Amino acid sequence: MNGFLDSLLDGQITAATAPVWLFLALLFGLAGGAIGGLKVGGEALGKQLAMLMGAFYGPFAALPGIIVAMIILVFI
After folding, report:
1. How many Cβ atoms from other residues are within 10 Å of residue 66's Cβ?
2. 46 within a domain of the structure (yes/no)
3. Smallest Cα–Cα separation from 51: which of 65, 71, 37, 64?
4. Cβ pair 24, 11 in contact under 8 A
5. 2 located within any domain
6. pTM for the whole structure
């Protein structure tokens, strides 16, 4: 357990820490999508619907970039 926390805090991507980093990145994708949806469609759709749609589509936009970045970081 101590080795897992050390590698997580050091920012190393291993087989054990990759799901944790992926989950955190998806949470940030949710938050970013909700904020973006609020800014773009808050007036037209209503704030709650715009944030819901943004939170739904935000991770779909972020996921390919997250996976590519994690693959690149593993090999650096």
Report:
1. 17
2. yes
3. 37
4. no
5. no
6. 0.77
